Amino acid sequence: MSLIDVDGLDVHYGELQVLWDVSLEVREDDSVVSIVGPNGAGKTTLLKTLSGILTPTNGRVEVLGQDVTEAPSDDIVERGFVQVSEERNLFGDLSVEKNLRMGSFTKREAFEENRDMVFEMFPVLEERRDQKARTLSGGEQQMLAIGRGLMAEPKVLAFDEPSNALAPQLAEQVFETIEEISDDVTVVLIEQHVDRALGLADRGYLLENGRIQTEGTGEELLHSDAIKEGYLRG
Ligand code: ATP
């Protein structure tokens, strides 16, 4: 069964067309589906369209069985599509624990159980549970953003450039965490770290200039000429 089914998607900002005839699928049996491509390719725009923030000019977008153009974004979270955005969108003046509570608004009854699961995954967040989010390091903020996403018990967790602005060692930790999460939750991973993102992926898509250029298994894409020539030099 498809968790996400996108067919013939066009998206514009005003007159400017940013996505062209994009089709992709995320299936129930996928652990990780990666969408890779350069700056400005339209990756964030695609994610915003999946979560119903942007409305397409053409095409069909089904997320967890519902046409997102007809359902507001909070319904999408309720049904299990949760996004960890590039900006992390934390509440800087609220504590770590309160940020986790904000993530559990669709699953309030399970707050304590899910919080403890997040603390088990990220012990540093438990140590800092009363600290304001804005005083955390960049790596800790990323962990909190991921933890907050998990509080909603997602079926699909979508990451927008989770390694962005992190030192290599922290980025590596984030990828390891994503791999762990993908045992239980289907992950959509948007990344510029092409080798790492495709290494984790069951399947992947290369998005360039707003179009899907190549698709295949992670392994196939890693060995494709388009990826080798454009993204894996040096
Ligand atoms: P990055 O990795 O830099 O975030 P991206 O692949 O996520 O890039 P998008 O952010 O989706 O790319 O941007 C795709 C194109 O759409 C870019 O040319 C960008 O300038 C343009 N764009 C993005 N947001 C807007 C907006 N609100 N209004 C007008 N144009 C926009």
From TrEMBL:
One BP term from GO? amino acid transport
List each copy of the ABC transporter domain by range: 1-234
Give the InterPro entries listed for this entry. Answer: AAA+_ATPase, ABC_transporter-like_ATP-bd, ABC_transporter-like_CS, BCAA_Transport_ATP-bd_LivF, P-loop_NTPase
Q: Which domain of life is it from?
A: Archaea
Question: Which keywords does the record carry?
Answer: Amino-acid transport, ATP-binding, Nucleotide-binding, Transport
One function term, GO molecular function aspect:
ATP binding
Q: Which Pfam families match?
A: ABC_tran
Q: Which SUPFAM superfamilies match?
A: P-loop containing nucleoside triphosphate hydrolases
Matching entries from PANTHER family are given as: HIGH-AFFINITY BRANCHED-CHAIN AMINO ACID TRANSPORT ATP-BINDING PROTEIN LIVF
Q: Which protein is depicted? A: ABC transporter ATP-binding protein
- Species of origin reads Halobellus rubicundus
